[in-house]
Every structure is written in C-alpha cells, then in structure tokens.
Design brief:
This protein has about 200 residues and is an alpha+beta fold. The chain has five helices and eight strands. Strand 3 and strand 4 form a beta hairpin. The longest helix has 15 residues.
C-alpha cells in the first residue's frame, strides 16, 4: 500500500523533546487520530474492527504523542495468555517522518512496556520488516532479540523478524530510561500473525 508522508519543513526540526506531550488512550475521540497515523504511514491494511479490538480491550497499552495539539505518534499493544505465557504484544508503532529522531518512538514503546511489566507480563513480542533498520535498531537498544525469521510475512512479500524481550532483563531498566539516539528513523508496522488474529476481523 502506498504510504503518505508529512512534508519536510513543517517546523518539526525545531521541536525540543520537552515539547512533546504523551497521553494514554482516552476514548473514542482518539481512535480517528490513531487510524489516520497508521493508515498514512504503514503498508498493512487494517479495518476499524482491528483498531477497536486493541484500544477497547487494552486502552492502557495505547499511547499517543502530541506536539502543539497535533498527533505525531502512537503505539498500540495488547497482552494476554499465549502458550502458558503471559505476554505483551506491540502491534503498531508510528511516528510521522518530520518528528523522527527525537526519541518519540522510544518513549511510546517504553510507556507500553512499563505497563506490561507492571501487569505481570513475562515477555513482549512483535514483528518488524527485515529491511526496517530503524525499527530493528530501536528495539535492539531496548533489549529485544531476534527469535525467528518469518519468510514473506507481509502482504508486500517482505520477510519479518520476530523480536522478543524477556523479563527480567538486566539492561531493561537502564534502556527504558534512555531516549533514542539522534539517528533514530523509526517506522514499525506489525503484520498481525494468524495465531493472534482470529478475533481481529481484519479487512484484507
């Protein structure tokens, strides 16, 4: 799917990290903001039922980043029992292009991981394209390891790495307190795996 990009020169290059406001999902008024960001930046198509599945069941695991009232990033997650393990799952993470490299993606993921850890999750997993160097670098800094390569995993035919973070992790607390390096260029999209998607009503 062709993705839309925010135009450069929007003034985002002048943004300080302290100017970004982070909020947890607050209700139906936030849903269109999440959908807009994901639809314009990620190539995997999702129906409104997919979004609602996540934000209605796990609203405390979804966060949005704002700059001067504009939503510039979001993360959407879930958690639950999986093969005798209570685990978290990062489904979608987006920061629009002019705002990348400012630690926003790291902060969004960090907030979700902290809630998962406090809720008793034993691990966190996700999938990322093997070509998405920004995503792989970001998750590597947070302690994720590559547990499996999934061939032709996405609709566009690109392979994916399944990444996993186990608790407790000796470097986790330090990593979660650090913002991303200035070379962070992040766009993560998650293709919901078949074993996760039986209730998602995906509109493919």
């Amino acid at each position: 799917m062709e993705t839309k990009r925010e135009e450069e020169g929007s003034g985002a290059e002048l943004v300080d990290a302290s100017e970004i406001e982070y909020v947890s999902y607050g209700g139906e008024h936030h849903l269109p903001l999440i959908m807009h960001l994901v639809d314009q930046e990620l190539s995997e198509p999702y129906s409104i039922f997919t979004y609602r599945y996540f934000v209605y069941l796990w609203p405390h695991l979804s966060f949005l980043a704002f700059h001067e009232g504009k939503c510039v990033g979001t993360v959407v997650c879930k958690m639950g029992e999986h093969r005798n393990t209570f685990r978290g799952y990062i489904a979608m993470l987006v920061v629009i292009k002019p705002y990348r490299g400012r630690g926003i993606a790291t902060e969004l993921v960090t907030r979700s991981i902290r809630v998962m850890m406090e809720s008793g999750c034993e691990e966190v997993t996700l999938e990322a394209e093997v070509t998405n160097k920004g995503a792989l670098a970001l998750y590597g800094r947070l302690g994720f390891i590559r547990s499996k390569r999934l061939f032709r995993y996405y609709l566009n035919g690109v392979d994916a790495f399944r990444l996993k973070l186990l608790f407790p992790h000796p470097e986790l607390h330090h990593s979660l307190s650090m913002m991303a390096d200035t070379d962070e260029t992040y766009r993560h999209e998650d293709h919901i795996p078949p074993e996760e998607s039986s209730e998602l009503h995906r509109g493919l």
